């Protein structure tokens, strides 16, 4: 893939004795935070990713590596074919879902191997479910089912007014005991955060505590993440990148309605 290979070659030729900069882990501290945390729209400042520390411990970013960086690039590239877009989006979704499952509670257990030895391992606690925010959140459902075959998934349909940008709930259906469960809330693109905020309010009305909600997202703007965290300080947000420009075309490209 030309973009990926050219980047590797340029780094290797200029500094062969150091590690590729894309290997840096996004959990590392960073003081280079662009001054855009209070803006909902892209500005003229450099469009650099925002550090995790600037938005608090509720925000968790996947460690950045070449694989994730290339998937992000392909998804953002306007020349990407729909087939490649869906393929790369599904791969990135799977990585986010796997890390989301890693945030769920587990207990220690002991199993017996085929050779008769005892193995000390872990098992996830029961009582988890997924909730997708329609329509783009439905793109993440299969990735969750691929990891948890029998998991129950609820749905919320929320649309924003084009003029006021105020979110309105049109449909919501959850497992009857959702208030007892840990909820993996799925929404791939966090732009303003309004849709997610409204979805969380609906879950709270059904008895779910914000601390039991893990929001799975692919891309987020600083404004979107900050708005959600300010409204619900106990919620956990998991994403691959916080950037002032979000690929808001995701839903249309994924479902072929662009």
From TrEMBL:
<feature type="region of interest" description="Disordered">
    <location>
        <begin position="32"/>
        <end position="56"/>
    </location>
</feature>
<feature type="compositionally biased region" description="Polar residues">
    <location>
        <begin position="45"/>
        <end position="55"/>
    </location>
</feature>
<feature type="compositionally biased region" description="Polar residues">
    <location>
        <begin position="1"/>
        <end position="18"/>
    </location>
</feature>
<dbReference type="InterPro" id="IPR000836">
    <property type="entry name" value="PRTase_dom"/>
</dbReference>
<dbReference type="InterPro" id="IPR029057">
    <property type="entry name" value="PRTase-like"/>
</dbReference>
<protein>
    <recommendedName>
        <fullName>Phosphoribosyltransferase domain-containing protein</fullName>
    </recommendedName>
</protein>
<feature type="region of interest" description="Disordered">
    <location>
        <begin position="1"/>
        <end position="20"/>
    </location>
</feature>
<dbReference type="Pfam" id="PF14681">
    <property type="entry name" value="UPRTase"/>
</dbReference>
<feature type="domain" description="Phosphoribosyltransferase">
    <location>
        <begin position="66"/>
        <end position="243"/>
    </location>
</feature>
């Amino acid at each position: 893939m030309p973009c990926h290979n050219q980047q590797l070659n340029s780094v290797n030729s200029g500094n062969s004795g150091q590690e590729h900069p894309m290997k840096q882990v996004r959990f590392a501290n960073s003081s280079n935070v662009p001054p855009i945390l209070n803006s909902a729209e892209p500005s003229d400042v450099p469009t650099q990713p925002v550090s995790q520390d600037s938005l608090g411990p509720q925000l968790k970013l996947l460690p950045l590596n070449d694989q994730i960086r290339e998937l992000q690039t392909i998804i953002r590239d306007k020349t990407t074919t729909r087939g490649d877009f869906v393929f790369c989006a599904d791969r990135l979704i799977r990585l986010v879902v796997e890390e989301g499952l890693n945030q769920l509670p587990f207990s220690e257990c002991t199993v017996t191997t085929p050779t008769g030895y005892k193995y000390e391992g872990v098992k996830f606690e029961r009582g988890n479910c997924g909730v997708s925010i329609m329509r783009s959140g439905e793109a993440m459902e299969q990735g969750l089912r691929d990891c948890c075959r029998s998991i129950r998934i609820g749905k919320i349909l929320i649309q924003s007014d084009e003029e006021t940008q105020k979110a309105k709930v049109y449909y919501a259906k959850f497992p009857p005991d959702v208030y007892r469960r840990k909820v993996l809330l799925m929404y791939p693109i966090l732009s303003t955060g309004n849709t997610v905020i409204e979805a969380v309010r609906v879950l709270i009305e059904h008895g779910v505590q914000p601390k039991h909600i893990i929001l799975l997202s692919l891309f987020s703007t600083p404004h979107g993440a900050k708005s959600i965290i300010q409204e619900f300080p106990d919620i956990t947000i998991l994403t691959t990148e916080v950037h002032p420009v979000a690929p808001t075309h995701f839903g249309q490209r994924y479902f072929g309605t662009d």
